[in-house]
Amino acid sequence: MHLVERDRERTALTDMIQRAARGEGQVALITGGIGSGKTALLAEAAEEARRRGFDVRCATASLAERQTPGAVLGQLTRGLGPVPGNLPAPAGTGARDTLARLGPESLDSAVSRALLRLCADVERRARRTPLLLCLDDVQFMDELSLHWLLLLIRRLSDAALALVLTERGLSRPADPRLRAELRRRPEHRPLALPALSVDGTAAVLAPHVGDRLAPLLAAECHAVSGGNPLLVRALAEDSRHGAADPGTTTERLVVGDAFADAVTGCLHRGWPALLRIARALAVLRDDAPADTTVARVADVEDTVRVRGLRALEDAGLLAGGRLRHPATAAAALAGCTGQERAALHHRAAERLYEQGAPAVRVAHHLVAAGTGTAPWAGDQLREAAERHLAASRPASARPCLEAALRHCRDDGERLRLKALLAGATWVLDPTMGARHLVELAGALRDGRLPDQYAVMLAKYLLWHGKYVEAADAVERIGRRDAAVTDPTAAAEARATRELLSVTYPGLVPGGRPAPARVASAGDPRTRGAAALSDVLRHGPDRRVVESAEAAMRAMSLGRTTHEWLTCAVSALLFADRTASAASWCDHWLAEARARRVPLWIAEFSSLRAGVALRQGRPREARELAETALARIPVESWGVCIGGPLANLIQANTDLGDHEAAAGYVEMPLPQGLFDSRFGLYYLNARGHHYLATGQPRAALDDFVNCGALMRRWRLDQPSLIPWRSGAAHAHLALGGTARARALAAEQLRLTGGALTRTRGLSLRVLAAVGPPSRRGAPLRNAVALLERSGDRLQHAGALAELGLTHLRAGRAETAAELVDRAAELAEECRAPHLAARFRDILPAHRALSAAAAPRDQGLDLLSPAERRVASLTAQGFSNREISARLDVTVSTVEQHLTRVFRKLGVRTRGELRQPGALAG
């Protein structure tokens, strides 16, 4: 193994070997951190001496043999053969056997004389053949061997003898005699091995990862390893596979198993105290000051702590009083039993508490230790949980509250802890947060839980459809709004009541009869909730939009604001400010992802999916809705599942994936869904699915039921759900043109002038139910409004219908331009089935025109859907081929054909292909 940046030391050792060969005794002490290359340099010196004719003898001291008298000396003499001299020993017993039985207490004058004679024998052997003695880890030498070594060092000056010793920094023996003796010897050469430089680190890396990559990784590798050659080689081995694979990104350092093994080896090669100190640093993490705290946690004397920290720093494991890398900490704790870890964390908690450290730091160790019985522990755990919640760290608050709850014996405090725990776990997974709800609701009702928890309980119970249990909490919110003097608590109560009144309108009475209060509401939470309430009860206006945006500018995403931010974004969406709603929702979704709070990510993803649908982006909407269900499982959504399910049903319907939409329609629904606003979304989406799959009667039922609920709850705003459009299309499919026309006209009247998208949808329906000669004007207006609204899918549909109108009027060139633009928009919306349908308009019309040439007016009897089916039938397509081409069911094709035959008076498919058959 080539040693990097060790040329000075190598030259010094070569020189001393040369001097020893000339009869000038030499001794070198190589020091350095664990893994710095002391043993490797010792091996190089031994090999150099052998090449020069030296007799080389090596020994290694170990902690395990430190109490074995003569352990090191025995290794050295074993290679020398019989040792001359008259040591006191039984007849026939060798000198080394006698030495093995001697201890420090036996070092009387006789033993000392024997050791002196052994030194003399070694000197005589060195006069015949130069001798190199290599002693590794002399800090672990037994007392007898050390005594002999000191005697030998004093007799080096004129012998062809060299001694090369290595010693680790931490583990200096308590007896300083060796160092003292060496310092006074002129032939002593101290060789301290420094850490590698960054350039040296690159040189070690290069054979493993290549000359190009080594300089790129060197700085990071040096920061992780501290320049310890052993650790650098381990990191090179971890990174080698990545560098060798051309399909991987190699410009990064891999910290893997080899590094972990190397760290483990470093820690287990030192004193046991070194491992304890490293483990203390590992559990303290950022709490690791280089002071008595480490000694307390490691359970060592402070003097040992000082030496241990220095040794860890010399070994490249420590920098600035902290372990350099998380993998270093993990390796230190590897093999540590659960009981040992608990003890470490318990001592850390005690020490930090005594020092007045923040509760968050103390609680971390209390949780890890699994203890909380100390008188001060409960308060520390609760304070830490509250701070975590305030900082939007519910996942960190949860274990603190659970630990506090395990050790709490006061009934009242246990209820308050359960309430806090419900709030913390709610945003992680509402099912977890629901575990204590019924018990807490009972405690609130009995007066054992303060009214301040009514707001939380009402929202959580209603979410899960527990309407009976929620009734008392809802009533208390009203009383709290009127009685509480704290402005913050009062604002929260008012905002909650506003939100609940438009989310569960059948259960929570509406708040305000008029929208005047929205502009003057001061608290941003109240303004956000009031904006949503106003737009749903009274329709959109400029003040609602301004209030919603002002509320969001005054808030940041957090535990007490996230639901009011969703209210404000929803208010913009239902005011037909789709672009603004998208921009704000993207901002809050990014914030939610940055904070990694599952419920916030899920709610904003679902809301953004609804926005995407109104922008004509069904594929994006589907992906966002799927994200919402991935973050929070279906069973945890409660009645709010109506939102993401509606988005998925509608998105898949718009994309023509009716099988996927049907899968979501078939999912079981939670009890109470249709007592909430989320049930409206679901009914509307399911109605459109039924309409697209040839089930107009079922579709009509859903649209009518949706409208009945909206009227009953006084939320009948087309911008919320334009249910009349869906119902009108269902009536058209069932032949009820007059009723369809009435619904379209009513919806148009309700839209007013502010709702561009909703008004555009209404004009499309009105055109569909009107006579062909009068469809142009409403469709042109619909095209302009829908283009301005940003709903590209609806814009494409209006363009296609306007193109068909021009085609019927004989303006084929204009029609072709409009239809082509509609198809392009559909493709941009990633709805190829619609693009294909739009491009079929021109050939379908030509086929129908040819078949009905004698009396063209027969075409006017058919609805657009019936015309498409009739045209494809006239071209010779089968029902199954038509269903695939139009992306509808075979049953739908059959129903359309039945009405076509009835309206046109034909009895067979062949008659549709005969001239004049469509005259009617």
TrEMBL record:
SUPFAM superfamilies: C-terminal effector domain of the bipartite response regulators, P-loop containing nucleoside triphosphate hydrolases, TPR-like
GO terms assigned for molecular function: DNA binding
Taxonomy, superkingdom: Bacteria
Keywords, comma-separated and alphabetical: DNA-binding
InterPro entries in the record: AAA+_ATPase, AAA_16, P-loop_NTPase, Sig_transdc_resp-reg_C-effctor, TPR-like_helical_dom_sf, Tscrpt_reg_LuxR_C, WalR-like, WH-like_DNA-bd_sf
Domain HTH luxR-type, chain residue ranges per copy: 855-920
PANTHER family the record matches: TWO-COMPONENT RESPONSE REGULATOR (PTHR43214:SF43)
Listed name of the protein: DUF2791 family P-loop domain-containing protein
Organism ancestry: Bacteria, Bacillati, Actinomycetota, Actinomycetes, Kitasatosporales
